Amino acid sequence: MAKAKNFKQTKSGMYVSMASTAFGAITVAKKAKKARRENDTLRLVDAAVSAVSIVTGLALLYRELKRLGDDDVLLG
Fold this sequence. Notes:
Blueprint: H1 2-5, H2 11-38, H3 41-68
Helix pairs in contact: 2-3
């Protein structure tokens, strides 16, 4: 159970986090499409800010994944 506690700091945990963050991109794309269809500038700005947030989150997770290297908690 102690190993599961640190799951988010493992390579597997990072991949799961990246996948769930990337999954949010689908919602953002739907928001942007609806905003364009309705000519709603405020919702379009909201979708753009959300997209930037997703890209930043993925970049941070990727950087953390590179830092993990070979010292994976669940593998050793």
